[in-house]
Each structure stands twice: as structure tokens, then as C-alpha cells.
Design brief:
About 45% of the residues lie in helices and about 10% in strands. The chain is mainly α and about 210 residues long. It has one domain: Nitrile hydratase alpha /Thiocyanate hydrolase gamma (Nitrile Hydratase, Chain A, Alpha-Beta Complex), CATH 3.90.330. The strands form 2 sheets. The protein has a two-stranded parallel sheet. The chain is globular.
Length: about 210
């Protein structure tokens, strides 16, 4: 088989997936088949704009519509299907709500299960061994490293995603946003705030 031949080009690819992707990208770029700038733009679109924006719209609507929020927390899938935020990696979602008493945080300890239809491509740190292990053992320290300092009386609950269930954090609505509509509120919602490793922006910081 070609893959058993040490002189075959495929045999030169490193075993780590990230390094394999980088090696393939380098080969294709040198052959003029791939534009690195175009690749970066596509990745940024899915990682930073399309996916997280979907989730942000859901969060913002939950902030302004009490009935929507109640249905989202009790049985989110019909709502998400109606909104078009349903598909592979998002077949069974559970939404958990942050409160002054409880802060929720999501991890996947086994691999990198992540709600793609709502949050896009998972960030590199979410897939790292360090985050997957430490989020469970020392969540407050991990949150502090992300810049999230919680009151001593706020409990931290860590949710472990699986191939069957993925989680979305519904963060608390920032103060001073009473007059804002859904689109303006969505601008305050970051990807990390929906994983639990961040907080929504305040209006003056947006």
C-alpha cells in the first residue's frame, strides 16, 4: 500500500492533525493551488463571525423575550430548528443559564464536541489537553486566566459535552442594556461568554 511506503509523499506528513493540515496547506500553497489569505478569511468567517453570531442572536432574543427564554431553557431544539441553527454537531443542544448564584462553563473532556451551528469552529484552546483537563479540576483558576473573576459566593458548574449532547451557556444580561434591541444586544455577546469562559461586554465597552 502507498501509505506503507516510507518514500511515498503521504508518509512524510506528521501524525498530529494540526501539523498535517499545516503541511498540506504548505504543499498546496507552493503548488499555487491555495491562497493562504483566502483560507484565513474562510476560517475567520466560520470561527469568529458566522457561528458565534448565530448563538449571539439566540442569547439576545432570550434576554428580551421571556417566553422564548423559558422555551429555550426547557426544550431548545424546536426553537433552534425553526431558526435554522440545527445540523451536524448541533443535533441535541442543552442550554444552561448563568445566574448570580451559578456560573456555567462548558468543556469536552474526551475530545472537542462543540455546537458548530451556534458557535462555529471550536477555538484551539477548547481542544487543548490543558483546557480539557484543568476545566474540570480547577475551573476558577482557568476562568481567572480568561479574565473572569467571580464573586466568592458564585458556584461554578462545569458541563462535559459528549457526542450526544452539546451545551450553550446563556450568560447574564449586562446592566445598563434596558433600551437595547436584539441586534445591539447580540453585539455584546462573545463566543467565550456562550462557552462560559467569558462574560458579555458592557455597552460602554462594545
Amino acid at each position: 500500500m502507498p501509505h506503507d511506503d516510507p518514500d511515498h509523499p503521504h508518509a512524510l506528513l506528521p501524525p498530529d492533525p494540526a501539523l498535517r493540515v499545516k503541511a498540506l496547506e504548505t504543499i498546496l500553497t507552493r503548488k499555487g493551488l491555495v491562497d493562504p489569505a483566502a483560507l484565513d478569511a474562510i476560517i475567520d468567517m466560520y470561527q469568529s463571525r458566522i457561528g458565534p453570531r448565530n448563538g449571539a442572536q439566540v442569547v439576545a432574543r432570550a434576554w428580551v423575550d421571556a417566553d422564548f427564554r423559558a422555551r429555550l431553557l426547557s426544550n431548545p431544539m424546536p426553537l433552534l430548528r425553526d431558526l435554522g441553527f440545527y445540523g451536524r454537531q448541533g443535533e441535541h443542544m442543552v442550554v444552561v443559564e448563568n445566574t448570580p448564584q451559578t456560573h456555567n462553563m462548558v468543556v469536552c473532556t474526551l475530545c472537542s464536541c462543540y455546537p458548530w451551528p451556534l458557535l462555529g469552529i471550536p477555538p484551539g484552546w477548547y481542544k487543548s489537553d490543558a483546557y480539557r483537563a484543568r476545566a474540570v479540576r480547577e475551573p476558577r483558576k482557568v476562568l481567572a486566566e480568561f479574565g473572569v473573576e467571580l464573586p466568592a459566593g458564585t458556584a461554578v458548574r462545569v458541563w462535559d459535552s459528549t457526542a450526544e449532547i452539546r451545551y450553550l451557556v446563556l450568560p447574564m444580561r449586562p446592566e445598563g442594556t434596558d433600551g437595547l434591541g436584539v441586534d445591539a444586544l447580540a453585539d455584546l455577546v462573545s463566543r467565550d461568554s456562550m462557552i462560559g469562559t467569558g462574560l458579555p461586554a458592557r455597552p460602554e465597552a462594545a
